[in-house]
Sequence to fold (858 residues):
Amino acid sequence: MPGENLSRDEARERAALLSVEGYEVFLDLRSAVGGTDAGPRTFRSVTTIRFRSAEPGAATFADLIAPSVTALSLNGRDLDPGAVFDGSRILLEDLAEDNELVVDAQCAYSRTGEGMHRFVDPEDGEVYLYTQYEPADSRRVFANFEQPDLKAPFRFEVRAPEGWVVWSNGVGELADGVWKFAETKPISTYITAFVAGPYHYVTDSYERVFEDGTRLEIPLGAMCRKGLARHFDSDDVFLVTKQGLDFFHDNFDYPYPFGKYDQAFVPEYNLGAMENPGLVTFREEFIFRGRVTRASYERRANVILHEMAHMWFGDLVTMVWWDDLWLKESFADFMGSFSMVEATRFTNGWITFANNRKSWAYRADQLPSTHPITADIRDLEDAKLNFDGITYAKGASVLKQLVAYVGRDAFLEGARRYFKRHAYGNTRLGDLLSVLEETSGRDMATWSRSWLQTAGVNSLTPQVILSAEGRVTELAILQEAAESHPELRPHRVAVGLYRRSPEGAVERYARAEVDVEGPRTVVGELVGTEAPDLVLVNDDDLTYCKIRFDEGSLAALRDGLGDITDPLARALCWSALWNLTRDALMPARDFIDLVLRFAGRETDIGVLQMLHAWANSALTHYAAPEWRGEGGRLLAEGALRELRLTEPGSQHQLTWARFLAAVASGEADLQLLQGLLEGTAKIDGLEVDQELRWAFLEPLAAHGVADEGVIAAELARDDTASGKRHQVRCLAARPSAAVKAQAWASVVESDSLSNALVEATIAGFAQSSHRELTAPYASKYFEVIERVWGERSIQIGMDVVKGLFPSLQDPRGTLEAADAWLAAHGAAAPALRRLVLEARDDLARALRGQACDVGTVG
Fold:
């Protein structure tokens, strides 16, 4: 048997053979506390599966990843575990029409965030458990048929340490020392869940009375570690939750179907969140230990609503196989922003979507690994890597275009019919398109071929012809596509014309919507208008495209980008300029100059944070090497200037302080950061809380100003799980060959670190200012990655392969080494090759950007 990596063909064969009637799962988690961690720490897992076979006498397999199986029986017949269990699969032969499989196993607790993760809080020694399964890690906790289309109801029972509380998808009660949970609706294995431990838990409730008089009450709960309880603003979590439930009930016409609604904020979480019905899990970083900006609260609200949308798109109706992952993730990503803008205080959410989420999509869609939104997912490793910018952000962007194409009412009516028609079932692309055709009258097959079944991003550029009198005589939109993905798509776009007012503001004075088809589309409605200073071809962000500018518009942006009054238009222009930089059509130093000149006038805090990230990336990756020192000095000077100019105590001041920490390298900047830490320096209104202290300490460690003793003293101030992660990152950031060797060994040669500490170590190791120190590891990287991929879990493998790729050392040498590795390792795991190919492509793009920037050196 081929092991852990289930293929699509195997899943299809098994789905054709089996139908699952139900699971009964018993877990004994008392081993989570006490004892030592020598060897794998395990727990008892007993599973009973009742299922039918369409072919009596046939053979199949069940999934289980576990150190050992104690006992196995099929239809009352004992099986020899040594003969039928290979560590990941249980061979089942001579099936009856009706079958009962009982598996008694010892399963392992995880330290990688996969399966049953076990965390020991260094602050108080308490143990916390939670599960994370997507796409296929429930088999690390109980035996099952691990594929999304074999849905079934589940009954769970858990024996836990005394004093603990256990939560699962259904309501639970403690009886005779065992937590017993109500049977679930038919759901997929990957969205079953457990949370167990001495969590801090708060409750609320949601009530709704529908037009027909029926009443719905949903018990609400929210939990976190006891050590975070003092920071937990559960009232705001519940506020957004209730607003979301109102929105989805108003628009989906299908009451929330899973009873209670618990939300758990858990430690060392690999993802942003996971949509387990009745028990959503989130990374605990969404509980803010220090002062954060409005953008952080907006991000949390978006994630809460994204996961809530999954209760319908993904949990109630689930894709057959991971090819149609977009049927849940694209919809949840879109509905998260849609509901947030319409139902919460974050009414500018589409600005964040345009500036932040879509930049993730644009990058992913230009990688050699880009794929259609409806992807070709051959196996589980493919599925793991396809939780990417295409499936999430591009898919959501395309749905935004779809709403413009078919209309809001038709889109939502299609969703309502989809839920009612396929409740508790599994679907493919055609199932959704058919209801949208019904409600809109549009040809969805043609739209789908262009938008869902092809890859790549189009560029739209305005072409303006003016009369001698300064009027528009012709305005056209030119559409281009990359040679590798030549599809020219239909776009519904708004074209905005902007000019400077007598008061100096740049404002829109004319707008037209048009359907762009083919390489050139004329916008007749704008003929005769006064000459614009700026033409914005995707105004209001209706479609998914890269915006380009004519020369006049680009000149206007160089002169007055900060004078554009509309925040969405301004955000779109910033995004377009960043794409020009990444595409080596604008020198990196020109982009940095625009940030230095205009970012201080940016009102949207999320856009400002994105500009800081882009400016830092432009300096690190796209600027000419000989200019980096000067560019870093300019960014640090600009950050300090804006820090002193912004309103004391404002979120903008906090954002500029964090940016200063990110770019500080000169002696004066480092002395200021040190003074702010020690209390000998002060900036009016800037509160240096614990999280900001760690942000200031990392550059001090990276530049040799703060040694191990200073870092240890800071950990003593913040001896918590969060403090430990910061400490590990700062320790690995020190400028020492011995430090780098130790960090490398702890991640690559050992599996003793948890997932969170692996991530922190890699972040500290890979400092952009340490190119010479990390240069010796460039060749070592290509020697070890295939071994690491084979020996470690896929999550840790991904962290190592992506995080340690040597892009900063000798770029051209690394490019040659990557090409040589790819040529010599054609038989390596496709998912591993994809990660190397993506990193190689990012590096080649950076070199093109550096060549563009070198052209500006005079």
